Amino acid sequence: MSKAQETVLELNFKALEHNYRYLRSKIDPGTKFLAVVKAFAYGSDATHIALHLEGLGADYFAVAYAKEGVALRQGGVTKPILVLHPQPLSFVDLIEHCLEPGLYSENVLKAFATVAREKGQTGYPVHLKLNTGLNRLGFASEDIPLMAQILKASPQLRARSVFSHLAASEDLNERYFTQGQITSFRTMADRLDTLLDRAPFRHLLNTSGIINYADAQFQMVRSGIGLYGYGNTPEEDRHLIPIATLKTVISQIHDIRPGDSVGYNRAFTSRAKRRSATLPLGHADGIGRIYGQGRSSVSIHGQIAPVIGNVCMDMIMVDVTDIPCEEGDEVIVFGPGHTAAAFAENAGTISYELLTGISQRVTRKYNY
Hints:
Blueprint: E1 8-12, H1 13-24, E2 32-36, H2 38-43, H3 46-56, E3 60-63, H4 66-74, E4 81-83, H5 91-96, E5 100-103, H6 106-118, E6 124-129, H7 144-152, E7 157-163, H8 175-195, E8 201-203, H9 207-212, E9 220-223, H10 234-237, E10 244-249, E11 252-256, E12 261-262, E13 268-269, E14 274-279, E15 297-300, E16 303-308, E17 316-319, E18 330-334, H11 340-345, H12 351-356, E19 363-367
Helix pairs in contact: 1-3, 6-7, 7-8
């Protein structure tokens, strides 16, 4: 039996390369590819992931906030980095590290124009976010004349791209809504083009958009979750390989008698003789309390061991009654064959939340 030593998140860069090439195969050779590496590259390691994708030919990167982009620059990433949700307090850092802001409102556009002027910039690249129905961030259709007016009066800025975000591209039952978003985006971008001296390039598609709406790829596409091995549907998951495997170790095994309880608040009480294994990870590592009380499971020597009782801060307990195992044996929390999507779905959430929640105290291991 294999013996583990600690809780680790193993990152498979061959799988990352496979996913990148699969998604690339869905678009035209001349279409740019933006890799989304926000939230520590979906809970993995943003700098290592971005550097590897840069070597594979990724054209652009995206993060949510400026400090994420600064970390990439400090780590050696040289390709353009789009900051999707910049905050005014970070505008100086953003410029100093050659990051490109996604601007989404009149106030943010004017504020960045002011900082760019004060920093002596000319033609600083900015990206304009349009709201086509997600209703989260973005300029509305009626804002376009004012947006163009501000840009034309601001030589310190140059509109490099215009973009939007699809709300339900993975759900083909929402195809009518998604097609409406695509039409709205095209109409709004066309109108902006007529008002500007130079037309910015366009990007709209996310991972599921690449798969389901490749005819709307425009000049660039953006992929996040797909790069990490999840396609939002079982059909697409078969074409992708999860890059992250969360492994841990059995710390101790207990023989549980009928009537014995396990963990805080006696959330599990045994009705028969059972065996439980305690694992050294918990909600401080990103395995939240929602995964307790049988709602998720781990894999030990290829067999499923349900989580029992409440998840603790640093430990979880699993039922190993029918699994031959010993203290020190390796445990797969999620990975290929026992995916984060399945682990999360059983608890009523999604792979995105599970992956991005893995704590930075979990050791990363890199397999190239």
